[in-house]
From TrEMBL:
DUF4139 domain sequence ranges: 197-494
Listed InterPro entries: CHP02231 (IPR011935), DUF4139 (IPR037291), DUF4140 (IPR025554)
NCBIfam families (alphabetical): mucoidy inhibitor MuiA family protein
Entry protein name: DUF4139 domain-containing protein
Source organism per UniProt: Pseudonocardia petroleophila
Length: 502
């Protein structure tokens, strides 16, 4: 018994989707087989489940059907487009063949008529004016044929392009579209009546990713809009239905990782001995199963049900849908790294106020209504920090210059080196105070013979780590300036070269 069961809900995972179909069937008492046909070839048979309200499900079989005709309207339309393009190309070729034959005939007639006309002119039986008329008529027809053949050549190119595009679209859509699946649900009812049937299955070829818009308003607040970018090429269109986005990653096979011993040993050179023919190679020292991390859907997964029914076509086109929009207060400052460039980057720092884990994704940033550019958001937990780059602010000017470089006179004359002093100046041309974070670095030695000496930082940095990275935080009033001086030297033996410093 065929059971038309429309799609009523889809849960999209990062790499797959779970589809739910529902229908009501009138069944007789006893065993009834309900057939849900026209299921996509990307369906995973082991994922198929069925539930029947008011009856028992005694079995679900998934069958493969090879169809003579493709049930997908888009594939049929693409096949028709290919046939139309082939007919158009054949029509152009036929018309051009006719014009080519006509051109041949005209040229042969012109040659034969020319000979006869020359003889007639010689014996006086034809007037010279008649020769001109015949020549003009033949030339006009040859010109007409040439114009027609040029038009046919252009039409052939256009028809060829249409045929190529139609074939490419058909190849994209067809795939395994002639192969479909169907689910046979065995129902056992105690009495005749209506049964509500729900069929769920997982399909490959669907995914979703996150994307964001971040808009800094004039009041210093950031509006963060989270979008789900859904893409699917599962072989079936999803009509307007309940769409849920999930971070769970369902898998047909789930295994737990097993930790193998971590062996270390002395490095022993291998003797270069050729292996005799037929010899068996030595077994590896460590052999074990490949560890495959396959997270399961559980409490750690987040799901978001969209507020309104959403349709997604199976054509691979990204479909953007809004997950949520939140507003949060942001702390604004500028970040300058003069050693890398003279720009002061406006930065907004805020706390994730959504109550959800925000997956990683690109962020389009705006200052009010002005588009700034695209940055990236890393996976952020609830109440976790978010840092947004909002572009370069030309009103904060950063200048870095080398004030001095002197040769370093070391002890006993066995060492040599140089001492440099750099000065960085930051000027605030904004109408309000600017908080500017300035980062610089000192050279760090990787060899005992190379030493970093005579380090002088004025003022002292707010932070400094063992890798030589320093950070200052300056609050600069409107029209004000702030300066930092960095001095350091490098000392090394005269007979040893140094890389990374000059």
């Amino acid at each position: 018994m065929d059971l038309p069961a429309p799609i009523v809900a889809v849960t999209v995972h990062p790499r797959r989707a779970r589809v739910t179909r529902r229908a009501r069937a009138a069944v007789a008492a006893g065993r009834t087989d309900l057939v849900v046909a026209d299921l996509p070839p990307t369906l995973l048979p082991d994922s198929v489940r069925a539930v029947a309200g008011g009856a028992r499900v005694v079995g679900v079989d998934v069958l493969r059907r090879d169809l003579a005709e493709v049930p997908d309207d888009r594939v049929r339309a693409a096949e028709a487009a290919v046939r139309d393009a082939e007919r158009a190309l054949a029509a152009v070729d036929g018309a051009d063949a006719g014009e080519s034959a006509r051109e041949d005939l005209l040229r042969r007639l012109a040659l034969r008529s020319g000979d006869r006309l020359a003889a007639a002119l010689a014996d006086g039986s034809a007037e010279p004016a008649r020769a001109g008329e015949i020549g003009a008529a033949v030339a006009a027809q040859i010109t007409e044929v040439a114009a027609a053949r040029r038009a046919h050549a252009e039409a052939r190119v256009d028809a060829g392009h249409r045929l190529t595009a139609a074939r490419a679209e058909l190849d994209r859509l067809r795939g395994s579209a002639r192969t479909r699946r169907e689910a046979v649900i065995g129902i056992e009812a105690d009495a005749a009546g209506d049964v509500d049937v729900e069929l769920t299955y997982v399909v490959d070829g669907a995914s979703w990713t996150s994307a964001y818009d971040a808009r800094l308003d004039d009041d210093g607040r950031v509006t963060l809009t989270w979008f789900g970018m859904v893409v699917q090429e599962t072989g079936e269109d999803w009509p307007a239905c309940e769409l849920t986005l999930s971070t769970a990653r369902p898998s047909v096979t789930t295994t737990l990782p097993e930790l193998e011993p971590w062996w270390i040993d002395l490095a022993r050179p291998r003797p270069e001995i050729a292996m005799a023919a037929g010899a068996v190679p030595a077994a590896p020292l460590l052999r074990g199963k490949a560890v495959e991390a396959v997270p399961e859907e559980g409490l750690a997964a987040g799901t978001w049900r969209l507020a309104r029914p959403t349709a997604v076509a199976a054509d691979g086109t990204p479909h953007r849908t809004t997950v949520t929009t939140v507003r949060a207060d942001a702390r604004l400052d500028h970040l300058a790294v003069p050693v890398l460039g003279p720009d002061a980057h406006l930065r907004a720092t805020l706390v994730n106020p959504s109550g959800h884990v925000l997956p990683a994704g690109p962020v389009s940033t705006f200052l009010a209504d002005a588009y700034v550019g695209t940055t990236a958001l890393e996976t952020t937990a609830p109440d976790g920090g978010i840092e947004l780059a909002l572009g370069v602010d030309d009103r904060v000017v950063v200048e870095r210059e080398l004030e001095s470089r002197t040769a370093h006179r070391a002890r006993f004359g066995a060492q040599r080196g140089a001492v440099q002093r750099w000065r960085t100046t930051v000027t605030n041309h904004r109408p309000a105070e600017a908080r500017v974070v300035v980062r610089d670095r000192l050279p760090v030695s990787r060899a005992a013979e190379v030493k970093v000496v005579e380090v002088e930082l004025v003022p002292e940095p707010a932070e400094r780590d063992e890798l030589g990275r320093c950070e200052w935080v300056a609050r600069i009033p409107p029209g004000g300036r702030w300066e930092v001086s960095v001095r350091y030297g490098v000392e090394h033996p005269k007979d040893v070269g140094v890389t990374g410093y000059r």
